[in-house]
Amino acid sequence: MNILKSVRIGSMDYKVELTGEVILVDHKECFGSADLNNKVIKINTELHHTQGQEETLLHEIFHAITHERNFSYDKNDDETITEELARGLHQLIKDNPKLFELSNTIIPNN
């Protein structure tokens, strides 16, 4: 999985910043953050190895998706749902890398 410098979520481009600086959200140190107003996702490179950074990026992308698509649910549920979706998608990507490869062939249905 590549961590790009920006990702398009809905119709918005979010800048992705890898940083060694402490990221605080609600006065708590976090692996990453999504500034939904300024369209910036930050990932702390000091707290996680590469796979952890990838999972954190997916976590923050899910926050941005729910914001851009106007999902509404309890803040406590938001973190739980977001974390489980991020972990599940990260595992899917790692376990099935060919699923996301571009191909010029059509794979027949089994």
What's the gist of this structure?
This protein is α+β, with helices and mostly antiparallel strands. It contains 2 helices and 6 strands; from the N terminus they run ββββββαα. It has a single domain, classed as Orthogonal Bundle (Arc Repressor Mutant, subunit A), CATH 1.10.10.
Overview of this structure, please?
By secondary structure, the protein is α+β, with helices and mostly antiparallel strands. The protein has a single domain (6-100), classed as Arc Repressor Mutant, subunit A. It has 2 helices and 6 strands, in the order ββββββαα. The chain has helices at 50-68, 75-95, and strands at 6-9, 12-19, 23-25, 28-30, 32-35, 40-44. The chain has a 4-stranded mixed beta sheet with strand order 1-2-6-5, with helices on one face. Strands 3-4 form a two-stranded antiparallel ribbon. Helix 1 crosses helix 2.
How are the SSEs placed, and which strands pair?
Elements: E1 6-9, E2 12-19, E3 23-25, E4 28-30, E5 32-35, E6 40-44, H1 50-68, H2 75-95
Parallel strand pairs: 2-6
Antiparallel strand pairs: 1-2, 3-4, 5-6
Helix pairs in contact: 1-2
